[in-house]
């Protein structure tokens, strides 16, 4: 805590992404017990798809803001826009309803004073999404928006294998960096629009990877599924993945652990490994 009373995040900050959170105070307490600092969670239950009529009624659509203190909301919870909203924005017949739902959830995030709101970018077809996002970017204020983008597409071009061997494929327009570049070009240029970069099992080519080194990467999402097991059974990253994480450290990102864990220690071995990789004293 600074002398002015403003919150200062730890030098190494790591959060936990959760898909469904039935008991938010309990989930936050468990995350803190494991040594992590914040959670990333959907603001609304993932299955609660609302029609335009339901949204226009302006009834209760998610949990009360009273389940946490204003201090906890503003320091320890990163909201996530519902995935169905982002998917529907790519379907012309469903865009209007998706836009109203986006406005509803983003307005709620502002009401809660969340430190950031995460939005999944699914393709380069993002003009409509940019229009919705610009409504909030142009309002001013302190709200920060993390655009969740995979570092490589499911079928990567110019991919690097886990062993570090680069293929000869040519980087094309389906490189997720192009998705982000398109969105950024369509949005109001503000520092509050950032990248939450997900490290995927397959890594892009060196050329594609260099593009990300010039972007405002504020969070690095590390799925548990990309970890290997060492001789002692502990989770570790391949040398290629280690190099990517270390190169991203110059942006001082916050880390997010995502996915299922096994064993009695749960998230602890993954958190311990990331701290080791980032040179944090344990």
SSE blueprint and pairings:
Layout: E1 14-17, H1 24-33, E2 38-42, H2 52-56, H3 70-76, E3 77-80, H4 83-88, H5 95-112, E4 117-120, H6 127-137, E5 145-150, H7 176-186, E6 193-198, H8 206-212, E7 217-223, E8 228-229, E9 235-236, H9 239-248, E10 254-258, H10 268-277
Parallel strand pairs: 1-2, 1-10, 2-3, 3-4, 4-5, 5-6, 6-7, 7-10
Antiparallel strand pairs: 8-9
Helix pairs in contact: 5-6, 6-7
Describe this entry's structure for a reader.
The chain is of the alpha/beta class. 34% of the residues lie in helices and 16% in strands. Strands 1-2-3-4-5-6-7-10 form an 8-stranded parallel β-barrel. Helix 6 links the parallel strand 4 (117-120) and strand 5. The radius of gyration is 19 Å and the shape is globular. Mean pLDDT is 85; it is low at 156-172.
Condensed summary:
The protein has helices at 24-33, 52-56, 70-76, 83-88, 95-112, 127-137, 176-186, 206-212, 239-248, 268-277; strands at residues 14-17, 38-42, 77-80, 117-120, 145-150, 193-198, 217-223, 228-229, 235-236, 254-258. The chain has 282 residues and is an alpha/beta fold. The strands form two sheets. It has an eight-stranded parallel barrel with strand order 1-2-3-4-5-6-7-10. Strands 8-9 form a two-stranded antiparallel ribbon.
């Amino acid at each position: 805590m600074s002398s002015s009373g403003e919150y200062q995040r730890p030098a190494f900050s790591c959060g936990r992404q959760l898909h469904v959170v039935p008991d938010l105070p309990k989930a936050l307490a468990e995350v803190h017990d494991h040594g992590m600092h914040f959670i990333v969670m959907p603001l609304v239950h993932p299955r609660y798809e609302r029609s335009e009529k339901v949204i226009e009624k302006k009834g209760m659509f998610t949990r009360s803001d009273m389940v946490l203190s204003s201090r906890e909301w503003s320091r320890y919870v990163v909201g996530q826009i519902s995935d169905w909203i982002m998917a529907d924005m790519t379907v012309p017949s469903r865009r209007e309803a998706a836009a109203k739902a986006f406005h509803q959830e983003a307005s709620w995030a502002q009401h809660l004073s969340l430190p950031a709101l995460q939005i999944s970018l699914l393709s380069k077809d993002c003009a409509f999404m940019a229009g919705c996002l610009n409504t909030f970017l142009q309002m001013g204020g302190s709200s920060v928006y993390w655009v969740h983008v995979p570092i490589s597409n499911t079928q990567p071009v110019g991919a690097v294998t886990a062993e570090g061997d680069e293929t000869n494929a040519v980087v094309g327009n389906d490189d997720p960096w192009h998705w982000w570049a398109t969105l950024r070009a369509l949005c109001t240029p503000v520092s509050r629009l950032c990248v939450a970069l997900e490290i995927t099992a397959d890594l892009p080519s060196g050329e594609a990877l260099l593009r990300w080194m010039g972007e405002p990467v504020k969070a690095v999402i590390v799925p548990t599924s990309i970890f290997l097991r060492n001789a002692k059974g502990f989770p570790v990253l391949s040398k290629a993945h280690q190099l990517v994480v270390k190169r991203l450290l110059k942006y001082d990102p916050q880390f997010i652990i995502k996915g299922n864990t096994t064993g009695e220690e749960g998230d602890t071995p993954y958190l311990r490994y990331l701290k080791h990789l980032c040179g944090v004293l344990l």
